[in-house]
Amino acid sequence: MTQTQPFDMFVVLAEMRTGSNLLEEQINRLDGVHCAGELFNPRFVGHPKQAAFLGVDLAARDRDPLALVAALRAQPGLTGFRLFHDHDPRVVAHLLADPRCAKIVLTRNPLDSYISRKIAAETNQWKLGDVKHKRAAQVAFDGDEFADYVAALQAFQLRILQALQVTGQTAFHIGYDDLGTLDVLNGVASWLGVPARLSDLAGRLKPQNPEPPERKLTNPEALAPALARLDRFDLARTPNFEPRRGPRVGTWRVGLRAPVLFMPIPGGPQDAVLDWMAALDGVNRAAMPDPLSVRDLRKWQERHPRRCCFTVLRHPLARAHQVYLREVVMGGRTGVRGYLARVHGVELPPRAALEQGYDADLHRAGFLAFLRFVQANLSGQTALPVQPSWASQTMFIEGFRAQGVPDRVVREERAPLQLAQVAQDLGLSAPAFDLRPPRALFPLEAVCDTEVQEACRAAYALDYRMLGFDDWRGGAAGG
Description:
By secondary structure, this protein is α/β, with parallel strands linked by helices. The protein has two domains: 9-228, 3-Layer(aba) Sandwich (Rossmann fold), CATH 3.40.50.300; 247-479, no CATH class. The chain is 40% helix and 9% strand. It is built from 18 helices and eleven strands. A five-stranded parallel beta sheet has the order 2-5-1-6-7, with helices on both faces. The chain has a four-stranded mixed beta sheet with strand order 8-9-10-11, covered by helices on one side. Strands 3-4 form a two-stranded antiparallel sheet. The longest helix has 25 residues, at 143-167. It is elongated, with a radius of gyration of 30 Å. The chain starts with 8 loop residues before the first strand and ends in a 12-residue tail after the last helix.
């Protein structure tokens, strides 16, 4: 990439009724620059009633869209086109990752573009060259339709933003209201690295619906309540700094004969579930198939179109308690032990001295400190990596989708009933599911109080919100 020629081509990332026709017209007035319309519109190639571009027709374009991109890039001068969120996703992904393709991001107030789109559909007037030919209309505002429209726009803008961040690129951002500012349009030319400049704003196209929104609606009273439902600034979003998880296919287990697949979440009741699966087949645990590889999973899925894939959730507090006992109190998480002592002043005795120096008060203090450590750890505020055993269960479920989707998300305390239903749906006799909690130094009931419950909610806010957990009330894994 050189200073005189930073880009091979460009793309205008926009949406319908955002002013992309106006911007294209101004870009095409620059010497040596050409914008070819909506080359990947599902219904035409470039512009309405245009069935081909550079000798590539609709069928050829859809078979090999990147061949048309390559042909465009090979044209003399600097060429580009307009690309919307519902155009060919293969092209969107390809160009977002290409630093030699300049990105011009055009946006407009979504309420204005939504109403303009409905008016254009009503009047069948998508461009305006002379105001004397303007077709006026009032349209009905639909709050639910508008919310879906805004969600689609936001999703596309977030995708653009993330792609630029990941690849270290920048884009030229321009708003609908900037299309009437000569200096801004010449700024586009400067950023593209072309010497041409506009001397005026002459052009054939005119803005179509400059009136206030209320004058363009048959039901303007519907605006206020619908807009009040939208979180314009995304204030309700909870930042999540926890690392994403892969599917962990190497931990998935299938039945010997029964068409069941278990997607375990670390820190959950794996042993009890595997015992149940073995009993479902009438065999010992040792006779069960080994954990799967991705290739094994593909073959198993092909052989078992009628199957049940499931995971089992454990209450976040019960799960954290088991992990704390197993990995911190009884295990070798020296980094966590050091953090608890350094930050929270909780000194746990060595494992060999637990019987002499570990009591209920120290257990509660240590567990409470561990919950606060987990909150900081999942928020990226510690030097220690997030371990699978205490990571959010929601992140594992999201990760599963890369290789498979669980048909059932079973809750441990309801596993006897829910797993029996799994067996019944497959026409099998259901064995009993052992809900007995594992033995522990101190039961969770002995240390569970309001402060502990609140600390767990703070640590696992994502799981409580996404998976619908309430306060822990005893039961499975409570030991």
